[in-house]
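Might I ask for a little of your time on a matter of protein folding? The record follows directly beneath this note:
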Amino acid sequence: MTSTAATPTNAFDLDLPTLGPEALELSRTQSTEHLRELSSQHWMIRNLMGFVILDYDDVTKILRDKRWHNAVAKIPEMMGITDPAILNRPPSILAAEGDVHTRLRRLVAKAFSPRSANQLRPFMRNVVNELIDPVAASGRADVAVDICEPYPIPIICELLGAPREDWQLFSRWAEDVVRIFNGTAIDEMDVIGQAQIELNEYVVGLIDARRNDPRDDLITALIAAEEQGDRLSTEELVTMVNAVIVGGTDTTRNQLGCAMSVFADHPDQWRLLAERPDLAANAVEECMRYFGAIRGTGRFASEDIVYRDVLFPAGTLVFPSLAAANGDPGVTANGTGNFDITREPVKGRGQMTFGSGIHYCLGASLARAELQEALPLLARRMPDLAVDGEITWKPATTAIFGPNHFPVTFTPS
């Protein structure tokens, strides 16, 4: 990581291609092609706030370098938000760094293990079937509204031990709180703030209930999590559960929508998945590589950093492009970007949508299980899937990309 150059070049003095605001108007396909073209010119480019990292290896190395801190903590400030209640709240595991992050991750790791996620798989299948049942006979659906949007919430309720009838509350809170990451956050602070207050009050109530009545759920596990006498405080429990609700809903519902849009464009792969549900794990990795709901992430230099003979002064923002990294020919065994669910992931060069390094998605095992259970069932029960009209997508300024409306037809079952 450390340069051998006597005098590294300041990143701001480099003559780099620039990604302007017009890039927000590009479609996903156009954006991917544009990034691929730019990556042939340089391993990074400029944007309005800093630098976009395009090469797979550079994206990986920067995400794994602990000197680069997660920019999620700076988002409110960057957007001009001045509310002390937002700016001064303790960091969640998403934004924590150093010893604080290490401690939080160590205490909660067991609760987010693959084994914990796998225990919910039968419940996941039940939820998917219940969502398909009302539309199965008609052969028509808006999969974004009818299936993708409601799918993760009952699972999060089951995970936390919350009443399933509260899923609509969870859905609204998750959607409103995550607005803090959108480009329009400054205009939506009332909605964001109110959702956060309501969510915090609800979570505190759940925690109090589980302290008095422990059960086999995530909150009880987090309350009990302890190592060498160290436990999560109530405030830490609240921020952790908030992270689960917010991070475990919008990401999964949007990734499922993105995946189904890819399959709609590749009907042969949809039929194959219905016939061979054993390909589910491969299919999920390929969908996330080909069209990830999270297109990029942000980091800032916690100190002056020299990387590849380039000096990034302290405070410099960089944006590792997960989408560009996923399009790297080295990620696919045959060097092509064609969508193929039979493709085995290349060892050491897996899809990057979950990120990498210390901030690798804590809920990756749960998200993988949810998608692995949903997609084969949907393929079997919604054969001959075809887009029926126009898919409308979330604005390019949203942190998590996916469809708002996705009308389809399929052979009734």
Summary: The CA atoms of residues 77 and 87 lie 7 Å apart. Residues 9-409 form a domain with the Cytochrome p450 fold (CATH 1.10.630.10). The chain has one domain: 9-409. The first strand starts at residue 9 and ends at 10.
